[in-house]
Design a protein that fits this description.
With about 180 residues, the chain is α+β, with helices and mostly antiparallel strands. The chain is about 60% helix and about 15% strand. It comes from Microbacterium gawkjiense.
Length: about 180
């Protein structure tokens, strides 16, 4: 029973760390990267649809991204969705077949702003990991009559170790992204 709770906790925390890394990837650096557009939702026939399902994304140059829609009628909607995306600062243009997005050069102030944004996302991820820990601790406390106090104490120590490891993984990903953002 305790092993199941700990295994489930570890799995959920792993997913939280992966989600944080994916979130970090959506914050732009000095290069155009298709992952920046991972969370863009395009209004397609009245339904918000992920951009990756509507078009292929290529980065032919360092600061240019070319989006080729599978359906040409979605061009305007794709262009509008990119223009409306916060924290991107890109101005898309379309030539009737593709949408070309040229990323502006990052200023020092903008880089610092992005670092703050990434730190905020990291803190949200850590809060989520701690929330998972709290739920697991409650599940362990519910087993109080069924298992020995020593087993519960050992399980709580293991739970704390798993939590600490996952928080450190988030911190490492944050440091990497911060270094990437501040690199000129």
């Amino acid at each position: 029973m305790i092993a199941d709770i700990l295994a489930d906790t570890k799995t959920r925390m792993d997913r939280a760390v992966e989600a944080a890394k994916e979130d970090f990837a959506t914050v732009r650096t000095g290069r155009a990267n298709p992952q920046l557009f991972q969370k863009v939702q395009v209004e397609y026939y009245g339904t918000p649809t992920p951009l990756a399902q509507l078009a292929s994304l290529n980065a032919p140059e360092a600061r240019t991204l070319v989006i080729t829609p599978y359906d040409k009628s979605a061009l305007k909607a794709i262009e509008q969705a990119i223009r409306d995306m916060p924290n991107l600062g890109a101005n898309p243009t379309n030539d009737g077949n593709i949408v070309r997005v040229t990323m502006p050069e990052l200023t020092a102030d903008r880089r610092k702003e992005y670092v703050k944004l990434v730190k905020s996302k990291a803190e949200d991820a850590k809060v989520h990991v701690r929330g998972i820990r709290r739920k697991s601790k409650d599940e362990l406390d519910a087993l109080k009559g069924e298992v020995s106090d020593d087993d519960l104490a050992r399980a709580e120590k293991e739970l704390d170790a798993v939590t600490k490891t996952h928080v450190e993984l988030i911190d490492e990903a944050l440091k990497r992204k911060e270094a990437e953002l501040l690199e000129v």
